[in-house]
Amino acid sequence: MFQSPLGGELDLSWIKRRVQVLGSLLVSLLLLAGIYLLYHDLYSLISLQRHVLERTAYTAAHLISTPSIETALETKDSQTPSDSQLQDRLFAIQTDLNISGSLLILDVREAAPRILASTKPGLKKNDLYLPPASMKVMTALSNATSSTQLYWKDNTFWLSSYSLVKGSDGQTLALIAVESQETAFLYRLIGYALHYLLLAIGLITIGGFLYLWSTSKTSRSLESAKNRYFTLFRESTDGILFLDDHGNILKANDSALVIFQELPENVVGRNLVSAKAGFSFIPLDTGKDILKNTIALGEKFKSKAKLVLKNEKIRYLSYSSFPLSEFRATVGAIVIFQDITQDIVREQELEYHQSQLREENRELQQQVITDPLTKCLNKQYLHHFLDWQNLRWLRFEGCSLLLLDMDNFKQINDSKGHPAGDLVLQNFAAFLRTFFRRGDKVIRYGGDEFIVLLPRTDLNSAQRIAKNLLEALAKESSRSFEGIGVSIGAAELQSQEEGKDWLLRADQALYEAKRAGKNVVFINDPTQLEILN
Known about the structure:
Layout: E1 2-3, E2 9-10, H1 13-63, H2 66-74, H3 81-96, E3 102-107, E4 114-118, H4 134-141, E5 146-153, E6 156-166, E7 172-181, H5 183-235, E8 239-244, E9 249-252, H6 254-260, H7 264-267, E10 280-283, H8 290-296, E11 301-308, E12 314-326, E13 329-339, H9 341-368, H10 379-385, H11 388-397, E14 399-406, H12 409-416, H13 418-435, E15 441-446, E16 449-455, H14 459-481, E17 486-492, H15 499-516, E18 521-524, E19 529-532
Parallel strand pairs: 17-18
Antiparallel strand pairs: 1-2, 3-4, 3-7, 5-6, 6-7, 8-9, 8-13, 10-11, 11-12, 12-13, 14-16, 14-17, 15-16, 18-19
Helix pairs in contact: 1-5, 2-3, 12-13, 13-14
C-alpha cells in the first residue's frame, strides 16, 4: 500500500494476491497431478493383481471335475478315496498354475461356508471358512461368477479370489477360493506411494520455489514501479492533475501548483472545467472536452487551453488528456500540461515583426517604383508593366496608353529656376492623380513627360478622357501651372503587340501632336490618324 495521487492509498496488493493465487493453483495442480498418478498406478496394480487371481480361480474351477466335487459333498469323512483324489487334484492344479498361496474348495450350501478340500495346512474337511467379510463375498457371488477380497489376517495381508462351480443342473455346487499372501505386494504399493510422495514433495518444492521467486520478483517490480511513479509525479517539470469522473481535481503535483500559483488545499477538490475553481481553464479547441471525450468516451487527445488566474494573469497551456481506468472502467482523467506562454508571446512577437517587415518591404518596394519628386510611379514600374506576361491579360480587356508632354516647361526652368519647375511638376502630378481613376496608373516617364495607363479602356474612350483632361487642365492652368499646355499622344494595345511597340506608337502620336501645336491630342490608330483640337 502506498499513497495514491487519487487520494488515500493506492492498493497494489491485488497483484501480489494474484501471484499468490496463481502460485497456490500451481502447487495444487502439481499435488493433484501427483495424487492422480499415484491413484492411477496403485489402482492399476491392484486391478492387475486381482485380475490375475480371478483368472487363476476361474481356471482352477474349470480344471476340477464336477463329479469329484459332487462325490465329496455327499460324504462328511475326509478319508474317503474320492476326497484324497480331490485333495491331490488341488495340489496338482496349484503346482501347475504356480499359485504361491492356497487353493480351496468351499461348500456354500449353508449360510456359513465350510472347507471341502484345501491345500492350506491346518485346514480339514468341514472346517468353517471365516475370512473377514466372507458373507459379503458369498452374497456377491450369488449373482456373479467371481469376486476378489483383500483382508488382514494372521499379521499379514491376504488377497482372495473366488469363482463358482456349477453342477449339471446349473446350480452352484461349490466355490473355488485362491488365497495369496500379499505382504510383498503391499510393500510394493507402499513403495509406489512413497515414490509418488517424494515426487509430489519435489514438485511442491519446485512450485514453492517458483512461487517465492515470482512473489519476490513481483514485490521488487512493484517497489521499483512505485519509486518510478513517485519520482515522475513529484519531479516532473510538467504539471500533472488527476481528475475524478466529474472533473474535480484529486491530486496536483508541484509543477501544477506553481503554474496555478495556488496552494494544494486551494486546488484539490476544485473542478477544473468550472469557472468556480478560482481560475478559468478555457480550451482553445471547443471540439475537445475532457469530460465528454476522455471521461465519457475513454479517448485521449492533445490540445491547448488558456488559463486565467485569480489575479487576472493569463497563461497558455499545451495539455494532454488520458483516461484513468480501474478494472476496465473509466473513473477519471489524467491531465499533463506545459506552460507555453513564452512560446505564444514569441509567436505573437514574431508575427508582429513579420507584419512590420512586410509593411517595410511594401514601403521599400513602393519607394523603388515611385518617383521621389512627383510621388508618381516611375519608369522602372513602366518596364515591369510592359512585360509580355503582364500584358497578355490586358489584351483581352483592352488597355490604352496616354503619353503627355508639358509644353513650354523649359521656359519656366530658364526664367524662374529649377525649384519653381519642380513645384510645377509636383502640382501637375497631383492634378493627374486626382483626375484619373483609382485603377489608372500615372507614371513619370522622364523630365516633363508623363504616361497614363488606362486599363479596360478602348481608343475612343481614351480620346474622350484626353479631351476632358485638357479642358480640366485649362481651368486649373491659370492658378497652378502658369499657363503651360500639354500635348498628348494616345495608343491602344493591339493583339500580339509587345509593350515597346505599343509605347513607340504612343510616342509617334505625341510627336505628331507636338508638330500640330499645344493642347492637342493625337491618337495612333493602325487604320486612321485623327487630330482633336
